[in-house]
Structure formats: structure tokens, C-alpha cells
Write a structure and sequence with these properties.
This protein is of the alpha/beta class. Helix content is 58%, strand content 9%.
Length: 310
């Protein structure tokens, strides 16, 4: 399959990544020798950060590999933020050729961020620092097309594109993880686990970590018995929290994510301290496995907040 048939206008997900102090040298300084890098210093509690980061991601995606984004959580990397002179967030630094060349503070309109990025890309071109090669661009765009197909549950198309990528780039981590994702979503848990085993030991990303957690959760659910029997137990004993917990795990394994979240939240509403707050801890584990943008995660977090702060 020709990768050009799978091209889109956006780059691969590896142009947008989370990093930390230990990986700053590779993810920012060294990477900025190949293309300009925006470094977004943010924190989960920062409202303006939640406005700015999606804008940064959109601008990076729109530039087709000419610029990258690295996100640094200041709460977890305070020394690094201090070294960079970060006094308020969000703070965005532009790196080019291994050094910071520009910056801005605070949330900015999309138009201003786009101008900032365009100025940086122009400076990179003048310095002889470009974006990806034609082949890298094709692979990047094909990865995005496959990821989109997987998100839309077009498993056949996703598998075809990931396989085409691997024929040209056998060690491509995103394509290997993508194949494993297709296998998991179509019920081939053993094959998905085996495919993930092909990745380097240090391979990590939110998608890979989430898939590994999903496989572990599916294994756990497989040993929990008959969901009909668990539902029957709850009809006569609604405070049978273990039965409701087990049912939630089975619901998740069957892809009924929101129903699984609702079951765990029901336990918390009845007995917050049950199993040392086990329902909440498991719910957070599910959110991590599903990913922050999954509709079930977004709805589940709203339900959880309503319970905790009512």
C-alpha cells in the first residue's frame, strides 16, 4: 500500500509529547537541531494552560512536521522550570539549534500563536534547520490517518495503514502500537500483548501505557464470572459493593465504559471508604486507560466531580 494514499494534513503524534527534566536534553535541545521546538510549561490546576495547550497542539498539527511541541508539567519538574526562569504559567519557550530563541507568557489567541510559530519556522529555514524529510512526512501523515481510522473504529483500514508503514519502517513504534490497538479492539488480546512485546523496553507514550492498562483490565475482568449473575445479586442486595465492582470491570471489558464508570461512582455514593477507597482508585485507573479525550473519561470525570463536591 502506497503511504501517499493515507496522507492527511497533520503530522505524527510524536511531534507532540510530554517530557520531563530527564528527557529535556533529547526531547528539546537535541530535537531542536532538526526542527524548532515549542516548550509549554503548564500545570493541571492552571485554567489558562487548559486554554493554551490545545491551541499549541492545533498549530503544531497544522504545520505538517515543521515544528514540534514538548509539554512540561511544572509541578513535577520544578527545578527545570526554575532554571528556565518560569515565574508564571502558561509559559512557552521556543528552542532552535539547541538554545532558547524566543518566549511568551500567558494564554494567547490562536492568531498570535500561529504568528509566533510562523516566525520561528521562518527563522529555522534561514538557519538551515528544516522539518522532516519527504519520507518522514509521508509516514507521519499515514500514522495520523491510521490513528483517525482506529478512533472511528474502522479497524480494517487502520490495520492496513499501520501494516503499510511497518513494511517501510519496521521499527516504527507508533505503527507497532497501532497494530496492537487494532488487535485489542477486535478482541485479540493475546495477539495485542504479543505485539506490544515487540516494542523496546523503554518505549512509552500515553497510547502505549493506556493500551497496556486496558489489557490488564481485560485480563482482570475475564476472571470475574457471569455479569447476569452479578446483576441478579445487586437486585436483592444493592449494597453488595464487590458484585457492583466486578460488574464494572466486566462492563469495561465489553466496551461499555460509561456504564462501568457509573457503577464505580454508585459504589462511592453508597460507601466512599469501601475497600480503602477502591472504587475511586479503580475509576482513575480506567480514566488513564481510556485516555483524557475519551468521551467516557470526560463524562465520568464530570460525574465524579458532582459526587465529590455536592
Amino acid at each position: 500500500m502506497d503511504l501517499r494514499a493515507a496522507q492527511t494534513a497533520t503530522p505524527a503524534n510524536d511531534l507532540i509529547r510530554d517530557s520531563d527534566t530527564a528527557r529535556f536534553q533529547a526531547d528539546v535541545l537535541e530535537a531542536s537541531m532538526q526542527r524548532p521546538v515549542l516548550v509549554d510549561f503548564w500545570a493541571p490546576w492552571c485554567g489558562p494552560c487548559r486554554q493554551l495547550t490545545p491551541t499549541l497542539e492545533k498549530i503544531v498539527a497544522a504545520n505538517g512536521g515543521k515544528i514540534a511541541l514538548v509539554k512540561i508539567n511544572v509541578d513535577e519538574n520544578q527545578a527545570l522550570a526554575g532554571q528556565m526562569g518560569v515565574q508564571s504559567i502558561p509559559a512557552v519557550f521556543a528552542f532552535l539549534g539547541g538554545r532558547p530563541v524566543d518566549a511568551f507568557m500567558g494564554a494567547q489567541p490562536e492568531s498570535e500563536v500561529a504568528r509566533f510559530a510562523a516566525k520561528l519556522i521562518e527563522a529555522a529555514a534561514q538557519a538551515g534547520i528544516g522539518g522532516p524529510s519527504d519520507n518522514e512526512s509521508q509516514i507521519a501523515q499515514a500514522i495520523q490517518a491510521a490513528d483517525n481510522a482506529l478512533a472511528e473504529q474502522d479497524f480494517e483500514r487502520a490495520y492496513q495503514i499501520y501494516s503499510a508503514i511497518l513494511r517501510q519502517a519496521p521499527d516504527n513504534i507508533e505503527a507497532i502500537a497501532g497494530v496492537a490497538g487494532v488487535q485489542f479492539e477486535t478482541g485479540d488480546i493475546d495477539d495485542a500483548e504479543q505485539t506490544l512485546g515487540m516494542l523496546p523496553e523503554d518505549a512509552a507514550s500515553p497510547a502505549i501505557d493506556g493500551l497496556r492498562k486496558s489489557i490488564a483490565l481485560a485480563r482482570e475482568a475475564a476472571s470475574l464470572g457471569d455479569p447476569a449473575a452479578l446483576s441478579a445479586r445487586l437486585q436483592t442486595a444493592p449494597d453488595d459493593h464487590q458484585a457492583r465492582f466486578d460488574l464494572a470491570m466486566i462492563l469495561n471489558a465489553r466496551g461499555e465504559k460509561l456504564e462501568a464508570a457509573q457503577a464505580l461512582i454508585e459504589i462511592m455514593g453508597r460507601d466512599r471508604e469501601w475497600s480503602e477507597d477502591g472504587a475511586r482508585r479503580k475509576l482513575l485507573e480506567l480514566f488513564e486507560a481510556w485516555g483524557p479525550k475519551d468521551p467516557a473519561t470526560l463524562k465520568g470525570r464530570r460525574l465524579l466531580s458532582s459526587l465529590l463536591f455536592r
